[in-house]
Design a protein that fits this description.
CATH superfamily: Glutaredoxin
Shape: globular
Number of domains: 1
Order of helices and strands: HHHHEHEHEEHHH
Number of strands: 4
Helix content: 40-55%
Strand content: 5-15%
Strand order of the largest sheet: 2-1-3-4
Oligomer: single chain
Radius of gyration: 16 Å
Structural class: alpha+beta
CATH architecture: 3-Layer(aba) Sandwich
Number of helices: 9
CATH class: Alpha Beta
Largest sheet: 4 strands, mixed
């Protein structure tokens, strides 16, 4: 596992590098990842706008700010993502803001399709769900915890809808975005900090 993590870190990007790469692909009419489609491009464009807004509006709660500033251990947060992923667009700005306010957190991002071996170590119910944040000891690269692809409240919303209607459709995708909007990133902050 450590070798796969090291190899993935060598292919990782800072948050700003990741954003630039996804933006450059969009200018070429492409989404990130191995598969290209009109739908993935459409989602990627929506996510670009969403992330631009969230970067300006996401706030770290005072309580969580204090926790992040007082971490007594150094962490590497390695996130598996793709530009077309709606959950990643909601969550990456939160991860970035949390890392920015702490001297003890370094954020790195890798593309899922370019890091299949890593993704296969952190499947969710057998699936390659993203984003997935892998919390590492910065010095040993030992895995402390992993989290994702979404906060527990959002996971429950999706699960309940699928059980009731048997599908994940545009209706629930819209409801999920509204859930994120109302939550303001607090559930994500709390759940990640509870793992440290």
């Amino acid at each position: 596992m450590n070798d796969i993590i090291k190899e993935s870190l060598e292919r990782s990007f800072s948050y700003s590098q990741y954003r630039t790469m996804v933006s450059n692909l969009l200018q070429e009419g492409k989404s990130s990842g191995n598969t290209q489609s009109d739908d993935l491009l459409h989602y990627s464009l929506l996510n670009e706008t969403r992330m631009n807004r969230l970067e300006k509006t996401i706030k770290i709660s005072d309580e969580n700010l204090l926790k992040l500033k007082n971490l007594n251990k150094e962490y590497m947060w390695l996130v598996i993502s793709e530009g077309w992923c709606g959950d990643a667009a909601q969550l990456l700005p939160i991860f970035n803001k949390m890392a920015d306010v702490s001297d003890n957190v370094e954020l790195k991002i890798v593309f899922r399709d370019e890091n299949e071996a890593l993704m296969n170590l952190f499947l969710t119910n057998g699936g390659k769900s993203i984003p997935k944040i892998i919390i590492l000891d910065k010095h040993t690269l030992n895995v402390i915890a992993d989290w994702g692809p979404r906060p527990s409240g959002a996971t429950k919303l999706m699960k309940d809808y699928k059980e009731k209607f048997g599908v994940i459709d545009e209706t629930i995708k819209t409801e999920l975005q509204l859930w994120y909007l109302h939550d303001k990133g607090i559930s994500t902050q709390n759940e990640i900090l509870n793992l440290l």
